[in-house]
Amino acid sequence: MVTPFLDARIGVICPDDSVNDDEFWACIPDRVNFLFTRYRTPKRFDPISIPMVETYGDFDTVYDAAVTLSIVRPSVSLLACNSGSFVGGVGGDRKIIEAIERGTNAPGTTITTAQVEALNLMGIKRVAIAGPYPQDVTLRLGDFLTQSGFEVTEVQSAGMETEWEIGNAEPQVWADLARQVNSPEAECVIIAGSGTRTAPILNSLEVELEKPILSGPSVVVWHALRLAGVQSRLQGRGRLLANY
User: Fold this and answer.
1) How far is it, in rounded angstroms, from Cα 171 to Cα 183?
2) Which of 42, 177, 192, 219 makes the best surface tag, with the fewest CB within 10 Å?
3) CATH number for the domain including 158?
4) Spatial separation of the C-alpha atoms in residues 111 and 164, rounded to whole Å
5) End-to-end CA distance of the chain
């Protein structure tokens, strides 16, 4: 919704263990605002695992959070949880979007949806994945992208089991993991997850590796901006936000 003060109001629906709101704020241009809401899940204190992240993408839970958000009339809303939107496989993200759109009466997206949209727009077919989670969780994103028509060259994981650990890791942790998973065959490196802090190192890492780096926050903010009709380019946060 456009107002005299803002070009877009982006609703952000995230699990209650998310600790890096500032990473999202680092990826938006002027005249755009974020409206955050959090939701609780029954496994919120469990170590990250496939059963645990399945609760992140529960359709009813996401819908309830979207209804809560609807009163502030977002232009578009996103689920700030990569694992919750890929763990259900291809099509699972679309069901989450349906829940968001039904609850907010506005367009919606997820990090996984945005990753696919960005890769297609940039003409990328071969990707490497650096994930913050245990390896079996990260491999689910690899499966999702493979089933979506991409070639996954390699998957590596940091093996972290809490969002607190992920969200408080230094950006250099993710830069190092991206270097490890990178290869000449990969046209792009995806740094998976909504909780990683990568904004300060995206540009320099792209220059070093000579390819796009898609972080969870940057790619979903990009997609939400474009869905909201905001075409402003943002320098210093990677090629996607600067050029697309």
Assistant:
1) 20
2) 42
3) 3.40.50.1860
4) 19
5) 22
